[in-house]
Amino acid sequence: MATRIRLQRHGRKGYAFYQIVVADSRAPRDGKFIERIGSYNPNTNPATVDLKFDRALYWMQVGAQPTDTVRNILSREGVCLKKHLLEGVKKGAFDEAKAEEKFQVWKQAKQAALEAVRTKDADAVKAVKSARLEAEKEVNKVKAEALAQKRAEKAAAEAAKQAEAAAAANAENAENTATEEAPAQSAE
């Protein structure tokens, strides 16, 4: 029986996520499988992989062949490197402690690179948010200036109206005073 490590599709249309399974190569894609060894969600950034490392390593060592996509996933997670190092130990190229040390160095470098990507993405999001905030502040500043100008024009128009009304009232008072004085003078 030829065993394959492959992806089993789940999820809805347009939003697929996958289970990483060990199955007979003759079984249908979403059909019967021997063991589920992890999951893969490409919808997140970066893609999320949850893997039972020991079981994946075991199946690789007993001869299960991964598909191309699963081989990439296992390689990224370090299963292929660990298998390679253990084969070197079997051949006597180096001892098990040296193999584990090499694997840990690789794993730390991988974690550092992943953390760098995450911080870069977080910084990019932060920069976009601050740029949006600055643009919004500029728009609000322009709106506030336009509103202040309208209010100043309205206040000036109101002041002009009041001045005109006061001038008209003064003129009317002066006219009334003049007309009252005129009959008083003609009566004398």
The share of residues in extended strands comes to 15-25%
At CATH level 2, the architecture of the domain at 3-93 is 2-Layer Sandwich
Strand order of the largest sheet: 4-3-2-1-5
Q: What global shape is seen? A: rod-shaped
Look at the structure and name the CATH superfamily of the domain at 3-93: Ribosomal protein S16
Distance between the terminal alpha carbons, to the nearest Å?
Answer: 139 Å
CATH class wording of the domain at 3-93: Alpha Beta
Task: Report the strand count.
Answer: 5
CATH topology of the domain at 3-93: S16 Ribosomal Protein, Chain: A
Number of helices: 4
What characterizes the major β-sheet?
A: 5 strands, mixed
Q: Provide the structure class.
A: alpha+beta
The unreliable regions are none
Percent helix, as a range, is 55-70%
Mean pLDDT: 89
Sequence of secondary-structure elements:
EEEEHEHHH
Alpha-carbon Rg, integer: 41 Å
Walk me through the structure.
- The protein has helices at 53-61, 68-77, 79-91, 96-187; strands at residues 3-12, 15-24, 35-41, 48-51, 65-66.
- With 188 residues, the chain is α+β, with helices and mostly antiparallel strands.
- It has a domain at 3-93: S16 Ribosomal Protein, Chain: A (2-Layer Sandwich).
- β3 and β4 form a beta hairpin.
- α3 runs antiparallel to α4 (96-187).
TL;DR of this structure?
The chain is of the alpha+beta class. It has helices spanning 53-61, 68-77, 79-91, 96-187; strands at residues 3-12, 15-24, 35-41, 48-51, 65-66. Helices cover 66% and strands 18% of the residues.
